[in-house]
Write a structure and sequence with these properties.
Layout (H helix, E strand, L loop, with lengths): L1 E8 L4 E2 L4 E8 L2 E9 L20 E8 H7 L12 E8 L5 E8 L4 E3 L4
Parallel strand pairs: 1-7
Antiparallel strand pairs: 1-2, 3-4, 3-5, 5-6, 7-8
């Protein structure tokens, strides 16, 4: 239960270890930074869930993934300006008693997400 994320690098075929991520709570145009973290070797938050089942609240959230910096650090030559800089995912939590898993599949030129389990 709670909120988690996982990032897979579809260009290299594995977890996006080392990608910087930010988590925000949002309300309308306002956003408040909750935490910054760097994904571990499995492409996940090294501290576990972003929220556990007791602290996750109904509301709106944003995850921001620093895609361009990650691929540059992997030695990928990106055009200037790069196609994807930061990928920002806004999502809502309607049922705080359920698990919300927000995976990201990403390359320098595309991304996909869904509500996982």
């Amino acid at each position: 239960m709670g909120l988690s994320t996982h990032v897979l690098d579809t260009m290299h075929g594995g977890p996006a270890a080392g990608m910087a991520v930010e988590l925000y709570t949002t309300e309308g145009e306002q956003s408040v930074l909750v935490r910054r973290f760097v994904l571990n070797r499995d492409g996940r938050n090294p501290d576990g869930p972003l929220y556990d089942s007791k602290t996750l609240k109904k509301g709106t959230y944003r995850l921001v993934f620093d895609v361009a910096a990650y691929f540059r650090a992997r030695g990928v030559t990106l055009p200037e300006p790069n196609f994807l800089g930061k990928v920002s995912l806004d999502f809502g939590v309607a049922h705080a008693d359920q698990h919300y898993h927000v995976p990201l599949l990403v390359s320098p030129w595309s991304y996909s997400t869904y509500r996982g389990s």
